[in-house]
Amino acid sequence: MAVTGGPGLEPALSLPEFRSLVLERGRELYRDLPWRRTRDPYAIWISEVMLQQTQTTRVDGRWQRWLARFPSVGALAEADAADVLDEWQGLGYNRRALALHRAAGAVMELGGELPEDAKKLEALPGIGPATAAGIRAFAFDLHSVYLETNVRSVFLHELFPGEEGVSDRALVPLVSATCPADASDPADDPRAWYYALLDYGAYLKRTVPNPSRRSRTHARQSRFEGSHRQKRAELLRVLLAHRGEPDGLGLAAICEELASVEEKAGRRPICAPEVEALLDELSREGFCRPGEGAWRV
User: Fold this and answer.
1) What is the pTM for the complete model shown?
2) Annotated active-site positions, please?
3) Are 31 and 199 within 8 A, CB to CB?
4) Are 295 and 254 in contact (CB under 8 A)?
């Protein structure tokens, strides 16, 4: 059986051949990652969000620490946002932490249990199609279309070798067709199938030119150091470092601390208007709030 991957694209293998190959490679390359030892939907949700654009080695350890500090959806929902942001530091993309906090509150309003339904999951803050699919597959063993970078790499490497600019629109039907319908076979259920894809994809990235670069969705990550994103992150770290101060931190003190960071990195200090613009931006997004001539998280 061969399935057309999209206009002008024909997979190089039949889907049964592809599935057999991936399952074999998955058995050879299986990674015993800590979040694979649980079926707790909350713990799996946290791992899925942490693993977005973050290396597995950085998440291992941080995931366990997060669960020790916020062991349940209820604990996360009840936590202060500043504590959530503090625990997230070093994982990047701080919006993910705020979204987790907001989503936890929304889950508690639903009764405290993460839903299994994809549309209900995607209605929660910060949960897109891939994260919802990961939760469905790994926590509930349900059929899902889990298309993330390692999974994409395997499909491109095996089914479309040499093809450039392959769209996700071409891949989605294949991802759906190859995912088992249910958990009737523990050796080949949705959870085991996607583990095999993830582990084979991670291996490919180490051993061949990254196949995902041939995806139409591939975008090179912009430089972090010296970027607007880096300055936002550093500003938030400064505010978090002083979050116990009841009067907050004044603009002059913030500018002084940020100037020290920039100078140590060999960059020009940030001027007060730039800092004010960053503070206003973070405030609009819910990271901090102004007070009487001072700022606090």
Assistant:
1) 0.89
2) 48
3) yes
4) yes
